[in-house]
Design a protein that fits this description.
Blueprint: E1 2-3, E2 7-12, E3 15-20, E4 24-28, E5 43-49, E6 52-58, H1 59-62, E7 75-83, E8 86-94, E9 96-101, E10 107-108, E11 124-130, E12 133-138, H2 140-143, H3 149-165
């Protein structure tokens, strides 16, 4: 079991996911996306976040869920992650953002018997409950290891320039 503080809950389809709230930079309404040629399906492109170029990934595709059209509830969550010892800023598109909250008992447990299945378990740091419902905690650092090094290098470079300017 892992102790967890505040989380941001996200919805994709009927499922609840969470990220640690201390990794969230901001939440945005959908905005124009500049597509990147030959990008993998989960990489939607680049968005402008207050003058910074930030890569945008589709959380549904990363999680292996079927695609669906954006709705009035669709949001973009700008997050930071650790990548090659540096801080990278990346955004994910989610069906909806629900709330900042706590898990029912403030703990995460491992996914039971996950090793028995051919499953990409590195995407998940554990399972908890929020208001009695299962919540899957996303492991941000592990999830984005699959994103190409070149794409994240650009994100880290842009983020580093902005931190130096601040």
């Amino acid at each position: 079991m892992t102790k967890v503080t505040q989380i941001l809950t996200l919805g994709c389809g009927d499922d609840l996911y969470a990220v640690p709230v201390d990794r969230v930079q901001e939440i945005l309404d959908p905005c124009p996306v500049s597509r990147l040629p030959h990008a993998p399906a989960h990489l939607l492109g680049v968005i402008d976040v207050r003058g910074d170029d930030v890569v945008l990934a589709d959380l549904r595709i990363i999680l292996g869920l079927p695609l669906c059209a954006d709705t009035a509830a669709t949001r973009i969550v700008v997050l930071w992650l650790n990548w090659e010892g540096r801080r990278a800023v990346i955004a994910v598109k989610a069906d909806r953002v629900i709330e900042v909250t706590h898990l029912d008992d403030d703990t995460l447990t491992d996914v039971p018997e996950a090793g028995l299945f051919a499953w990409e378990e590195r995407l998940v740091s554990g399972i908890g409950r929020c208001k009695g419902k299962f919540v899957t905690m996303i492991d941000l650092d592990s999830m984005f290891q699959a994103v190409s090094a070149e794409t994240l290098s650009k994100a880290v470079s842009t983020s580093s320039k902005n931190e130096q300017a601040a």
